[in-house]
Structures are given as C-alpha cells and as structure tokens.
Amino acid sequence: MGKTLYRCEIHSPYDPLPLTISKALVLAKVREENVSWVDDLQPQWIPYIYTADREPGYFPVPENKGREGMAYLTHIIDNYDTLTDITVFMHASATQWHNDVGDTNSSNVLSMLRLDAVKQRGYVNLRCQHRPGCPTAVHPFDPELLSSPSIVYRNFTTIYTELFNTSIETVPKEIGGVCCGQFALTKERIHQRRREDYVRMRDWAFSTSLDNFTVGSVFEMLWHMVFLEDPVSCPDTQQCYCELYDLCNE
C-alpha cells in the first residue's frame, strides 16, 4: 500500500451499533472452490452459499449467467422482505487478490470490517485501492468506444439503458467505481430499490446475448450504481482503509 499503516486505537466517527445486529455473508461459488473457511464464521455470520454447478447442499441459481451477479441478485430477490441488517457479498475462495487488507484473506477482511461504517454509509466496496476501476472506467459517449475490441464498450449505452430501464439522456458522461464485485450493504440501502428492479436486472442477464463472463463484467462495473451510489464512486484510499478497517496513517 506504500505507506505504513497501523491499527487505530481510537477512531469512532460513527454512532455505536446496537448490541445485536444480524449479518449475512453471500458467496457465489463454482464446484472447484472450497468454502470450508466459512464454518469458522458461524454463528456471527449467516452464510448463504450459491452454486453455479447445482452442487447439493448449496443454494442454486436459476441460470449460470453473470457469474457472481446472478447469485447476488437471486439472494436479494428471494430474501427481499427478510434481509439481515447487513449483508456482505463476496467471492467464494478463502483468499482473493481483490482483498487489499488482511493478507488477501477473506476471513480477515470480515473480522476487520467496521460494521458501524457500513451502517452509516449504506454501501461500501470492500476494496480500497482505486485500480482497476477508478477514477473512471468508461466514458459512455466517447466516439472511440465504437471501435473498441470490447463488446461491452462498443454497446455500453445500450447495455446501460436496458439494465436500468432508462433513457439514453440519463446515461452518465463518465462512470468509475472500485473493482471488483465484493461489497457490504445495509438492508435499508437494498430497499431503496424495489424488488421488481432487481428482478428486471436479473431478467436482463437471462435475456441478453452477452455471455456469462461478459454479463458478470457489466455488473462488476456497475454495482455501485445498482445500489444508488454516484456514477463516479472512488473514495479516498487512505480514508477508506482508516474508516472501514481502522488502518490509519501514522
């Protein structure tokens, strides 16, 4: 990270949490991924593990389309009225390059995460480093996108208007957000969209001609907007470490 960080002894900009707060961990796995690391998190975290491969003992997804996006949306749709106070959405492996604290260990990320910060903000990406994704991932109206080798960039405005059921006039001039599909949410933030909105987004994933990997990439680029953050959502890196994980500059 470039600078010496330490575990803050005093850092409390947010109101204290209630003594009891319900927490769910949503994971999206494929057959070869070992999720036994989750066992040690119970009962503090309620696990919801979704499988793309119809493995017994896990929650199924209706179609293997959109990578973790299908699992995340399915969880929200199926549990919309009974969501926990906080839900964390993560990839399934015990270690992830996306994790930039806790030696890339997902259990460490969860143990370090300050839930009071999540409650205050409503939505937080679990990653603090800006790249990839920030400061901007795409300028939707850049004429050069028409000749891009990426099918997503070539068709970005169409994808955006279909996914969000909106007009081209509402497409932002620039979009940027911290990578890569791991974040924490309050149920209040999830409920700022109607359940029908999440159903429509999942239906788009079902119906689009884009392949599994590409649909997942679209969601990775736009999760922060799905959950009503600004089009460019790139919190200061050091402030992120400090507020989310108590890792503050000397």
UniProtKB/TrEMBL annotation:
Pfam families: DUF3431. This is Uncharacterized protein. It comes from Aspergillus parasiticus (strain ATCC 56775 / NRRL 5862 / SRRC 143 / SU-1). The lineage of its organism: Eukaryota, Fungi, Dikarya, Ascomycota, Pezizomycotina.
